[in-house]
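Appendix C reproduces, verbatim, an entry submitted by the partner laboratory led by Prof. M.T., so that reviewers can inspect both the input and the predicted structure.
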Amino acid sequence: MKSKYSDRDAKLYINKFAKKGVPKDLALRIYTTQLLGNDPTVVLHGGGNTSVKSSIKTLLGKVEKVIYVKGSGKDMGDIEEDGFPALEMENLLKMRTLKNLDDFQMVNYQRKYMLDTSFPNASVETLLHAFLPHKFVDHSHSNAILSLIDQPNPEKFCKRVFGDEMGIVPYIMPGFELAKKASEVFEQNTSVKGLILLNHGIFTFADDAKESYLRMIRYITKAERELSKNSKTLVVKKYSEKKISISSAANIIRQQISNQVNDDFERKIVHFYKPQFFEEIFSHKNYKIFTQQGPVTPDHVIRIKSKPLVIDLTKEKITNIEKTIVKAVQKYKEDYKKYFNRNSKYNPSATMLDPYPRLILIKGMGIFSTGPSFKDAKIAMDVGLNSLSVILEASKYGTFKSIPEKEIFRMEYWPLELAKVKISSQKLKGQVAVITGGLGGIGYTTAKKFQKEGADVVLIDIIDPKKINLDLKGMKYIKCDITKENNVRKVFDEISTIYGGVDILISNAGFATVESLEKLSKQQFDKSFDLNLFAHHYFVKHGVEIMKKQQTRGVALFNISKQAVNPGKNYAAYGLTKAALMFLMKQYVVEYSQYGIRFNGVNADRIRSGLMTPEMITKRSKARGLTIEQYMSGNLLKQEVKAIDVADAFYHLALSQKSTAAIITVDGGNIESSFR
């Protein structure tokens, strides 16, 4: 492993943060922390922690010794000064004299000794950092280190690789007891350059930021070399893969891990990926054993549970694949309940978490990860891939061994660990919303509304987003001409692969031809019907197919338009297609209500989007002798109707579990458009 430390960059960090009033010590701490945090083989998704001991002048003018330590849940890759709460060293050191200290007391005391309580809670390993005498302390869950130490006899390997340069700390759950034990191991040999925490990770330390970082790199490199020299070569076995639909498998899995709650479902995202080393896992003769051992480090259990679900589909008949997946998920569920009941005595107050797998390895296909949002599912995938990589390397080197089951359980149900996984109260959490015309005014505004309420949003449009200055962070954009049915089918296959399925369809794309009836050409009619009617049908048809497979209901929402019931001069092609679209919506209601799927629409008027271009608005205002403001608010309420008003209507209809065939008029009051 190569060092990425640069004296030049270190100075840049010092100067950059000095402008914010950040002291040199902390600036260097931020710099080396980010170096470690940006390597996923060293630190992953909030794992690891670092600290620096320094001094600070309080509001009362007193100079006080403090420790800046990474805040709990903060990501080392992009951490800055607001991720390092400062705590009073004097009082932390006094805590070492205590015989016992439970977790809640520890957190409470740590919070009490913070100089600024607006900062996040300090790491649960704060005391370990504090009890070590060095200025800079670094901690990571390096893949190479874990592959070396997750073995039946790790002390032997550590001695062979590190000699007397590293102290060895037996596995103990993070907290007060581990902090005391680690400091005792250090004091037995104060010349050590770091500590190896078995089944946990590595600590390095020094009185210089650069040296502490370099020691981390040095000992990780030693572990990498040891693994490289002494690992067995694994012959990859070829097996015949069947043409199995990944999207269909994702839909089935999503259906199996969704729970019905009252009138709706508690849904999860299902994400698919096939890593390069996937075949290697199944080539190992003991893959069924080592994949079920447990996590490579206890921190992983909250993201991926104690073990993945493993399914072999290579020998199954195509007709049995769906049943096999369903049976396997249900078996995992029952096994998890047994696991909880077996170990609940270690935490009698624990309430069982959901019993479904976070990782599903399917031989003949790839890996599925699950989570309450795409972000969570992606984290589970990243952590899972990392974990599987370590397990594979450990098995090539020797024999992978995790911690005992009871310790896994204690970590999984540890309140301080559970606190890292925030439970969202957003009403659309776990749901996937797909919006056509997603880059237009109404589409994009609706997307932002649904994203804010917890949905994972997919935008479909034919426009190049690079030409539009829109913030698409956290959204998926797919370019597609939705007038071509095969294109739409492929889009939904892609969506199922990424998210597992779909819950909300917002059929929003549209086009208006302005021409009198006598001058309308067949080409103009065809174009209008292609986008304003047939494209809506293709979109909803293929989306509903997925909803049927998922068996979790769902809703399709149509942007219809007041033109469907209130024709306007020179808008024949537009109005006709919109009237047909309204009928299409009602036809879907008749044919698909039996699956619990709802179909609703919005009739809007005079929205600054799509048809209503600034040029058109100006032209129409002048023709009527009105200002733009007067024209846009020309309704009974005398208020302009905006894209957000349409988005609110879509949102309301998405939540209305007992509303179908409903059409909400959003026009500020136009009595003519209410006749339908």
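The radius of gyration is 30 Å. Additional entries are available on request from the coordinating office.
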